Hints:
Blueprint: E1 4-9, H1 29-36, E2 40-41, E3 49-50, E4 57-62, H2 63-69, H3 74-78, E5 84-88, E6 94-98, E7 109-113, E8 116-117, E9 138-145, H4 149-152, E10 159-165, E11 174-181, E12 185-196, E13 200-210, E14 229-242, E15 245-261, E16 267-285, E17 288-305, E18 308-327, E19 331-345, E20 352-368, E21 373-390, E22 406-419, E23 430-435
Parallel strand pairs: 7-10
Antiparallel strand pairs: 1-23, 2-3, 4-9, 5-6, 7-8, 9-10, 11-12, 12-13, 13-14, 14-15, 15-16, 16-17, 17-18, 18-19, 19-20, 20-21, 21-22
Amino acid sequence: MKTTLFAGASVGLIILASATTASAQSIDYGAMEQLFNEPVTTSATGSPQRSTEAPVAMEIISAADIKRSGATDLPTLLSRVSGLDVLNAGGAAADISVRGYDRSMSPRLLVLINGRQVYLDHYGYTAWATLPVQLEEIRQIEVVKGPNSALFGFNAVGGVVNIITFNPKYDNVGSVTVRAGMGGHEEISAVKTFKLGDKFSARLSAGAVQMDEWKNTVGVVSNLLTDPARVSANLDTLTQLTDKTELRVEGSWSNVQISEMLSNNTYSPTKYVTSSVKAAVASETKFGTLELSAYRNMLAAKHMVAGQLAKFDNEITVVSAQNLFKLGAQHTFRVGGEYRHNEVNTAPIGGAQIAYDVLAVSGMWTWAISDKLSTTAAVRYDKLDLERTGVFPVAFPMANNALWDRSIKETSYNLGLVYRPSDLAFGRPWSTSAPCS
Length: 437
């Protein structure tokens, strides 16, 4: 995280900021997209708004765009977005960054699936091959360029990629996809939504892919490059507890084999097994829209480095709460808090654990100054406490856990301006950003 200032101007007014439904926490993106003839987002401010009216530099890839692209994976799809840099650094391994700074294991991008962060804290990057989502179940992908930690949260230093899947409450999706192509590419996936009565709906997806991305043409056998393969599954359920309260529970699993380029410019055969579970309750009350969510990401990773097998077990637990409310017709506020705990073992030399805890509070204010002008200001404060426990290798020069413990405090803030010069202007946003310390 870093302290940043974002200033932007875009064509359009946030006209949907006061829109509510009986279940304001659940948005029918498809109906709104048809109504306004462009994608709608809620991720920047919590309120529904046109993509061209968000107070950030945002580009949305729709489900129709994904289908037309012919892409078979997320890095290929995102490589076609201006301002994104994609580095293919191994068998089925890619790194993505915004506006440059791309390198192996790039740490500067926040990646979300329905609000759940898939960033691997133990390395400080996103392993795109592990994401347990099929392209056919994605409603839209929101790409935010520039630092936006105050609005989006932990690690949104360079930008945000927010993946939103089809909502089983509103979207009826069913498909089976089979692909085959060059490089031994073979893939099958299935997605299906279903309902049980008026209160419960769910979406189930699963897929498997394998390929021979590194064909041996010189007769030299290398155990550092393995044929990529992946199996994954995802379950997303929504339960309408009352007319104004909704429970959403998600679970995912993936088993991935790839070859990665490590930070020391050597390849490593890698096996990832990931799993996650998330629950979120949102309710429309007289005090505003209250939301409480919690999720846990679990990772078991195996790497072969310099002939040694390194095994990592990483667990991340996040609990957050927020309240979105209005004061009058012109002012919308969002206040929230978040707790994050991460822990991972040391490897290949074991016997110790690295962990940190993050406590964060945030606030946002959107002011509709007039029919043509609005502004959004946000601030976030993070306090990170890092610690090391356990033993040290023999003859280690700094064999004192206290030397590794530290506390980091950072404040982030964002400021966005939205202006509509005429009722008929619906252009893409123009924006600038600059760091401020």
